[in-house]
Specification:
This protein has 355 residues and is mostly helical. The protein has one domain. The protein is 45% helix and 8% strand. The chain contains 13 helices and seven strands. The strands form three sheets. Strands 1-5-6 form a three-stranded antiparallel sheet. A two-stranded antiparallel sheet has the order 2-3. It has a two-stranded antiparallel ribbon with strand order 4-7.
Length: 355
């Protein structure tokens, strides 16, 4: 009888248990899926029978949730035929979709004026780092800009992957339950690839978010407890990775070293936040901001975090912040669904994008 690997994984905390399953999933979801490389970021489209090429825009889980759950107008998404030549271009697009969520989600997006300012400042700074080509280098040896890179006692030792000509297959929603195994724990196949696309190699160099089978933003005891529990599971996962890499002759990236440094440096959180609108704010202020810009000045309330970074914004960006605050506070007076004309939606988003 075929079972989803996730059913067994839920009860597996020790490396000695289901050892073959660990190996199989490690190789299948890690090393084997990382082998094919592609020249652009985007969706794989069948161009002729049995032949595929990167010719469409990525369709991400976050884009689906934005449209279905937040009523974000799809006209502000990248045009359908868009592909990306560099990782920096895709990080910038992800950052702009984070801004779009704040701008267009009419209901339940902000709780106060300061909450809106927090979310605006975080998104503008994140987008700026993306457009400057810094997010793709964060936590690697090429990272010479972050506060963390100047203060770490144990500097990173691994180079950033190519950001312009070699990208990997990625699926936003891939997890153990996608993998089908037989009674002997042999892999039969993987299912549910609707949110798969070719993405930055940086994504596959992070440890899997699904080691706890639930996302940090939905964890019952909060994200700090998720992080604590995840670290224990991560040690087991890295042990399995190490065993596989020692036993097999593998070409290309060695995931063990990259995954370990990803967690230690915070790259894991950067990539996760970039892909998840509803996790972005907590992760940015808790795990990224001080790594990027250094220790914050003390603020009296969590909702006033923006005050410690607002001067990093240009005068134009600061003025737009107050315009957005008033707009969102006025919107919060009525719980309705807003339908946007395509041109109007694109113009509104563009009015908050600054060079």
């Amino acid at each position: 009888m075929a079972l989803g690997f996730g059913y067994r994984f839920e009860y597996c905390d020790r490396l000695s248990v289901f050892r073959s399953s660990w190996k199989s999933v490690t190789v299948t979801s890690g090393q084997q899926l990382a082998q094919p490389t592609f020249p652009r970021i985007g969706a794989l489209v069948e161009t002729s029978p049995g032949s595929y090429d990167v010719t469409g825009r990525p369709i991400t889980l976050n884009m689906s949730n934005m449209a279905q759950l937040s009523n974000i107008p799809i006209s502000v998404f990248p045009p359908e035929g868009t592909t990306y030549q560099t990782a920096d271009q895709w990080y910038t697009s992800l950052a702009e979709m984070q801004l779009a969520t704040l701008i267009f989600q009419h209901n339940d997006m902000i709780s106060s004026e300061d909450d809106c300012r927090n979310k605006y400042v975080a998104r503008q700074l994140f987008r700026r780092l993306a457009t400057q080509g810094r997010l793709s280098k964060f936590g690697f040896t090429e990272d010479d800009w972050s506060a963390q890179s100047k203060s770490r006692s144990a500097p990173t030792t691994l180079k950033a992957p190519s950001g312009s000509d070699s990208f990997r297959l990625w699926s936003d929603d891939f997890r153990p339950s996608n993998v089908m195994v037989d009674d002997d724990d042999q892999i039969l196949g993987a299912i549910d690839w609707e949110f798969a696309y070719v993405g930055p190699t940086q994504f596959i160099l992070d440890s899997p978010w699904w080691l706890l089978l639930d996302v940090p933003e939905m964890w019952e005891n909060g994200i700090d407890d998720w992080k604590k529990q995840y670290e224990g599971r991560l040690r087991t996962w890295l042990s399995a990775i190490e065993e596989v890499e020692q036993e097999m002759e593998l070409d290309g990236l060695l995931h063990l070293a990259y995954m370990r440094e990803s967690w230690e440096s915070g790259r894991f959180w950067l990539n996760y936040a970039a892909r998840r609108s509803w996790a972005f704010d907590t992760i940015y202020w808790k795990y990224l901001d001080e790594r990027f810009f250094g220790e914050r000045t003390e603020v009296s309330r969590t909702e006033e975090l923006w005050k410690s970074r607002v001067l990093l914004l240009s005068e134009e960006e600061q003025a737009a912040m107050e315009r957005l605050v008033q707009m969102k506070m006025e919107e919060s007076k009525a719980r309705i669904l807003v339908e946007w004309e395509d041109i109007e939606a694109r113009e509104r988003l563009s009015s908050f994008l600054f060079e």
